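Notebook B, p. 112. Complex prediction, attempt 2.
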Amino acid sequence: MATASGRRSAKLLQRIATLTPRLKPRPAVGACGWNPKSLQFWRCLHHGGDGVLLVPDVGRERKTSGSRQLASEGGRLPSSVLGGLRYATSAALPAVGAKVAKAEEMIEVSVDGQSVQIPKGMTVLQACELVGVSIPRFCYHSRLSIAGNCRMCLVEVEKTPKPVASCAMPALPGMKIKTDTPLCKKAREGVMEFLLLNHPLDCPICDQGGECDLQDQSMVFGSDRGRFTETKRTVLDKNLGPLVKTIMTRCIQCTRCVRFAKEIAGVEDLGVLGRGGSEEIGTYVENLMTSELSGNVIDVCPVGALTSKPYAFTARSWELKSTESIDVTDAVGSNIRVDSRGPEVMRILPRLHEEVNEEWISDKARFSYDGLKRQRLSEPMIRRPDGRLEAVSWHDALEAVAEAAHRVKPEEMAGIAGKLSDAESLMALKDFLNKMGCERIWSEGDGKSANVDMRSSFLLNTGIASLEYADLCLLVGTQLRWEAPLVNARLRKAVRSSRAKVASIGPPTDLNYPHQHLGTGSETLIRIAEGRHPFCAEFGRAERPAVIVGSGLLEHSDKSAVMAAVEMIVKHGNVVRDDWNGFNTILLNAAQAGARDLGLVQGARAGNKEIKFLYLLGADELTPADIPADSFVVYQGHHGDRSAYRADVILPGTVYTEKEGTYENTEGRTQQTSPAVPTVGDSRDDWKIIRALSEIAGVRLPYDTANGLRTRMLAVSPNLLRIDDLEPPSDFSFTLKNQFPSTVALSSFPKAVENFYMTDSITRASRTMAQCTAAFFGKRE
Amino acid sequence: MRSWRLASRAVAVYRATQTTGSALRPLPSTVLPSQIQNQDGVCRPMSTALLMHRDKPGNSVKDDWDFSPENTKRVKEILSNYPKNYKQSASIPLLDLAQQQHGGWIPVQAMNRIAQIIGVAPIRVYEVATFYSMFNRQPVGKYHLMVCGTTPCMLCGSREIEDALLKHLGVTRGEVTTDGLFSVGEMECMGCCVNAPMIVVADYSKGSEGYSYNYYEDLTPKRVVELVQELRQGKTPKWGTQNPKRINCGPEGGNTTLLTTPKPPVCRDLDAC
């Protein structure tokens, strides 16, 4: 996609933009953004004279014309331009239900004397943002509906008798907006005084202190004294569960949390109760906020009314060191910020990535960090004949492993990669075992016969962001809400914005949007595949149908038949076309996609002999029955979880906050974690352990540095080195089968996730996740 | 100098709360209405009760509640007034109907049932029910007496009216008399300022069929007690002004203005144009 000329011209345009003298910051030429109200992209094409030309982004279909290079904001295109638009034709997109502003629907307004071209339908506040004038606000949030109730964003508009709430006022042609007049200042000061009437002065003990919108804005618009001499009101705190702490007296009733819960999380628990001075946010009946995204209300809350319960009173925001990283608790690869103090991870916050997680993360990603500190393996250990594990030196431990490995035949060895393994350690493990002559390697969650021939057969081909454009979605054997909460949030967005129809086959799930539950297992699936189900008609009507296959099916006993049925639906439903690929598999684990790209599957010479030497790279999902009693088990991992109890040798590794590891998410996007805190005790980077072991075992791996290892990865799977790049999956429609085996076991599809809060060794070690399980799990089916 | 000023300010604030300032102080929502002591205007809470449901006998999320068969017909009628995709518009009329049916107050299960009927999350109904002070979420008497407390009525003596009522009934605000007949609440302006002070008698004694909501205006502490006595006897006093010298909202002793037909406004002679 990238062309040299495109890159050059973009650079040139940017240089022109920077040379143009200007009074206020304006969007750079090529800058683009998302207008949530009109559901469209804008892109700044031209700075002419005193004005800025912004047009709706039509670069979606111009994917080859260098539009991608025009995106100057970190070289990243706005949401979906990459994903959906890769497949979409101009006829099919932009989004259904979206009002498309044509070039002639641009209007001109002036902000503080500077004229700007904006698409019709933008609000006054958005127009100001485009010119670089920031408007103070509390209730306005670009991803939520407009409430207009905090009044902080008042601006003056010429010929209006009163200041207007800019977040709720559509910009009209010729509007002269003024944001720096005495009237504006007075209006904002007045609003601020009212907001502070009932707000307690407890910033020193408030967890939001230091990163509080109200605190910041009161520094600008607040007075050092108020005229309110009455007693401040107090509000009863609400119990929203073990994650969100409420100090409702601090609430300024911006209703962001209410709108988030209703619009994004899809749990209508929160509401505005009462009115006037006694208005408060609450649930009225005792009701925990049972959402997998509930932690995000902490971020949307502009004050300290909703704060993190596990983080409460543990650190102040200015003491923390922030490290940009990637979440590994599911296969979505949410972008996170790890806030640490010294050797301790204090909290985890989301980081904006329009194409992956927008600005939300799941509760598991946000709150499982206390699991990083508990149950950790910090020293190499060897099990003594009396059954006790004894701490030994690295050399002794590695020697014990090498010796045991050489005692057995290569066919009797096996290696299993765990859910959280990074691509580097996967590569090292595969190379090491292959050099030992063993080809019996697989990755957890894939089953022993993963289909890795075509990337498109195991990735979320549509792309997370483009899933918003689907108008029909069939979920097969997946509890999407618990398997990939943020993918589910995208689907929910599609349901909300364009009334996409969702149907599911599999275990009944409490999806947080209207959907049809067609059946529980292969019987329904086969009826659809054979065209004997009323739902088949929906495929005919849909423009962009999608099928999402759950990971639970990958380990299904009758996997090939079920997958063949899915492929028939894909074929007959016209799900894969040149302009749209709606065939998706949702992976469960962060390591899964990378493991498949690196070919962590059983080789041809794997054999079927009884395992006598088992190398577990953080694999904890094995039952005792899976491990032969007399086998030698090496457990390399970071937590004393299930498999550590069976291990003969323990090699302590690192968790994702301690290493630079490459992960590929379920849509095939390569991302990297960054080390935020030092390693624990004597533990080492996983790939380094395997590298050291290979030397002791006499099969020295040919790389000594991370770069050397990555060079090796480049040879195997080059996409794993293109960080934050989405490698488009290959076309695979020709491989689709047209019929399936005559015998198909009629069975119900299994649940892939039993307990959303505890899916891996980190979350199982987390106290917060245990509390969540206790609080919420009883409520779920 | 500055600290002295602050200190004197603090003293002033303290004095204000000791005397009149506290009269309008909103109470923390943790205080139950029944706990509110009306000790000569020490605290006058907003009419809103606790904005939270707590399970109690007779008002529990485990109860069953539904509209009566007759009212189910009225529910259908009410729903037919609104487009099918805007059924939630019926939440206020349905809450009103539920309140009439349930003796003047709405238990939590009634709100849940309404939410089910109009197809919204229960919290959306709770929001409406807590917003309007006319919806009672705690039991009230068969005759719920609401005293207007807004400025014109207050200036004309609504506080005395309320005190007389509370003293006569021997209850505090929000409390129900032991015979279950009366309760007293406060309302904001009901548009009768010209006949201030006034109260409203919401009569739930005859179910939703015989429900009435009558204004009694131009009250005196003596007259309001008489009203209560008449109600207790099962009578329905004549609604409207209680001043025999007034007709509706006309002035005492007959009209003083508009005694003749007013002259029409002078208009242009259109024919001359």
